[in-house]
């Protein structure tokens, strides 16, 4: 590939039509006047490796990876960052000029950037965090929080054994709390994060009691449809600072865009509007 070729990137999922990434990257390409393209690609699991090996030859410089391929790409990638290894999944692939596929996970980075911008006064080292859910998103959030210096993580998941596995992988600062007891530790938490799909349009509501919320607690929800979930509305009523989940989606896309297109994009209100269109 010569340097004069227009860089191509995209998102691989199955299905992929729901992805906000093409609108987001399209907005940044236009904003920065970059001659590049970002396209959605619906790829079935059995075709994943063939597609990933073919795309660089067609001028692709990398791709985002979404459900259900985030774990499967780990077995295909030639190089994997430590944070992707710890999480066990990748969302950003860089196709290097030597033909190697480099895999990273930027979800934890996106979570922290969103949290810092929505709750600038939150201090990671000040107190414990309560994390609801123990899926892939929770792994990314917890690894980022532990790296930021959170002293203790209370982790609660419907399927307790999944939370226990996560604790075994992440160490002693993670304490597993029964799902039905999660409400009991709310008053001890400086940060509450919902990483489950509860509260999302078309899903059940999150029913963990939030009576213990104190105004100094920061509450964030990874769900962004609706933008204001019941959890965030309850937290607002309690006087808490709340952070919605859309910003995490926007911020996690920044490192990939910068690597592929050579410009570090800004996440601002225009970016949010573009992703919501
Ligand atoms: P993601 O990668 O987005 O985290 P996931 O790995 O499928 O997706 O995890 C979904 C999370 O939402 C899990 O913590 C799941 O709990 P289980 O491990 O018990 O399945 C949680 N979740 C989904 N539906 C739920 C429900 N109805 N009640 C409680 N937790 C639920």
TrEMBL record:
<feature type="domain" description="Shikimate dehydrogenase substrate binding N-terminal">
    <location>
        <begin position="11"/>
        <end position="93"/>
    </location>
</feature>
<feature type="active site" description="Proton acceptor">
    <location>
        <position position="70"/>
    </location>
</feature>
<dbReference type="InterPro" id="IPR006151">
    <property type="entry name" value="Shikm_DH/Glu-tRNA_Rdtase"/>
</dbReference>
<feature type="binding site">
    <location>
        <position position="252"/>
    </location>
    <ligand>
        <name>shikimate</name>
    </ligand>
</feature>
<dbReference type="GO" id="GO:0005829">
    <property type="term" value="C:cytosol"/>
</dbReference>
<feature type="binding site">
    <location>
        <position position="107"/>
    </location>
    <ligand>
        <name>shikimate</name>
    </ligand>
</feature>
<keyword id="KW-0028">Amino-acid biosynthesis</keyword>
<feature type="binding site">
    <location>
        <position position="245"/>
    </location>
    <ligand>
        <name>NADP(+)</name>
    </ligand>
</feature>
<dbReference type="GO" id="GO:0050661">
    <property type="term" value="F:NADP binding"/>
</dbReference>
<dbReference type="GO" id="GO:0004764">
    <property type="term" value="F:shikimate 3-dehydrogenase (NADP+) activity"/>
</dbReference>
<dbReference type="Pfam" id="PF08501">
    <property type="entry name" value="Shikimate_dh_N"/>
</dbReference>
<feature type="binding site">
    <location>
        <position position="66"/>
    </location>
    <ligand>
        <name>shikimate</name>
    </ligand>
</feature>
<dbReference type="Pfam" id="PF01488">
    <property type="entry name" value="Shikimate_DH"/>
</dbReference>
<dbReference type="InterPro" id="IPR041121">
    <property type="entry name" value="SDH_C"/>
</dbReference>
<dbReference type="InterPro" id="IPR036291">
    <property type="entry name" value="NAD(P)-bd_dom_sf"/>
</dbReference>
<protein>
    <recommendedName>
        <fullName>Shikimate dehydrogenase (NADP(+))</fullName>
        <ecNumber>1.1.1.25</ecNumber>
    </recommendedName>
</protein>
<feature type="binding site">
    <location>
        <position position="222"/>
    </location>
    <ligand>
        <name>NADP(+)</name>
    </ligand>
</feature>
<dbReference type="GO" id="GO:0009423">
    <property type="term" value="P:chorismate biosynthetic process"/>
</dbReference>
<dbReference type="InterPro" id="IPR046346">
    <property type="entry name" value="Aminoacid_DH-like_N_sf"/>
</dbReference>
<dbReference type="GO" id="GO:0019632">
    <property type="term" value="P:shikimate metabolic process"/>
</dbReference>
<comment type="pathway">
    <text>Metabolic intermediate biosynthesis; chorismate biosynthesis; chorismate from D-erythrose 4-phosphate and phosphoenolpyruvate: step 4/7.</text>
</comment>
<feature type="binding site">
    <location>
        <begin position="157"/>
        <end position="162"/>
    </location>
    <ligand>
        <name>NADP(+)</name>
    </ligand>
</feature>
<dbReference type="InterPro" id="IPR022893">
    <property type="entry name" value="Shikimate_DH_fam"/>
</dbReference>
<keyword id="KW-0057">Aromatic amino acid biosynthesis</keyword>
<feature type="binding site">
    <location>
        <position position="82"/>
    </location>
    <ligand>
        <name>NADP(+)</name>
    </ligand>
</feature>
<feature type="domain" description="SDH C-terminal">
    <location>
        <begin position="245"/>
        <end position="268"/>
    </location>
</feature>
<feature type="binding site">
    <location>
        <begin position="133"/>
        <end position="137"/>
    </location>
    <ligand>
        <name>NADP(+)</name>
    </ligand>
</feature>
<dbReference type="InterPro" id="IPR013708">
    <property type="entry name" value="Shikimate_DH-bd_N"/>
</dbReference>
<dbReference type="Pfam" id="PF18317">
    <property type="entry name" value="SDH_C"/>
</dbReference>
<keyword id="KW-0521">NADP</keyword>
<feature type="binding site">
    <location>
        <position position="91"/>
    </location>
    <ligand>
        <name>shikimate</name>
    </ligand>
</feature>
<dbReference type="InterPro" id="IPR011342">
    <property type="entry name" value="Shikimate_DH"/>
</dbReference>
<keyword id="KW-0560">Oxidoreductase</keyword>
<dbReference type="GO" id="GO:0008652">
    <property type="term" value="P:amino acid biosynthetic process"/>
</dbReference>
<comment type="subunit">
    <text>Homodimer.</text>
</comment>
<comment type="function">
    <text>Involved in the biosynthesis of the chorismate, which leads to the biosynthesis of aromatic amino acids. Catalyzes the reversible NADPH linked reduction of 3-dehydroshikimate (DHSA) to yield shikimate (SA).</text>
</comment>
<comment type="similarity">
    <text>Belongs to the shikimate dehydrogenase family.</text>
</comment>
<feature type="domain" description="Quinate/shikimate 5-dehydrogenase/glutamyl-tRNA reductase">
    <location>
        <begin position="128"/>
        <end position="197"/>
    </location>
</feature>
<feature type="binding site">
    <location>
        <position position="224"/>
    </location>
    <ligand>
        <name>shikimate</name>
    </ligand>
</feature>
<feature type="binding site">
    <location>
        <begin position="19"/>
        <end position="21"/>
    </location>
    <ligand>
        <name>shikimate</name>
    </ligand>
</feature>
<dbReference type="GO" id="GO:0009073">
    <property type="term" value="P:aromatic amino acid family biosynthetic process"/>
</dbReference>
């Amino acid at each position: 590939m010569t340097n004069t070729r227009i860089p191509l990137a995209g998102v691989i999922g199955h299905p992929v039509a729901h992805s906000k990434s093409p609108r987001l990257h399209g907005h940044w390409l236009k904003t920065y006047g970059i001659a590049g393209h970002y396209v959605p690609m619906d790829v079935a699991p059995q075709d994943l490796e063939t597609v990933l090996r073919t795309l660089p030859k067609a001028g692709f410089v990398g791709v985002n990876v979404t459900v259900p391929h985030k774990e499967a790409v780990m077995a295909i990638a030639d190089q994997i960052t430590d944070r992707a290894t710890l999480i066990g999944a990748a969302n950003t692939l860089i196709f290097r000029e030597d033909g190697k596929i480099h895999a990273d996970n930027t979800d934890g980075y996106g979570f922290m950037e969103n949290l810092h911008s929505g709750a600038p006064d939150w201090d990671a080292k000040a107190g414990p965090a309560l994390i609801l859910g123990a899926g892939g998103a929770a792994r990314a959030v917890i690894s980022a929080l532990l790296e930021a210096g959170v002293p203790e993580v209370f982790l609660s998941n419907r399927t307790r054994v999944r939370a226990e596995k996560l604790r075994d992988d992440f160490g002693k600062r993670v304490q597993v709390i029964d799902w039905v007891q999660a409400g009991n530790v709310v008053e001890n938490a400086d940060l509450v994060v919902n990483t489950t799909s509860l509260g999302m349009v078309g899903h059940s509501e999150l029913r963990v009691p939030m009576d213990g919320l104190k105004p100094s607690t920061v509450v964030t929800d990874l769900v962004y449809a609706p933008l204001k979930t019941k959890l965030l509305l309850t937290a607002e009523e309690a006087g808490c600072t709340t952070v919605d989940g859309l910003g995490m989606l926007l911020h996690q896309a920044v490192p990939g865009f910068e690597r592929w297109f050579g410009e570090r994009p800004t996440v601002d209100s225009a970016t949010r509007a573009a992703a919501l269109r």
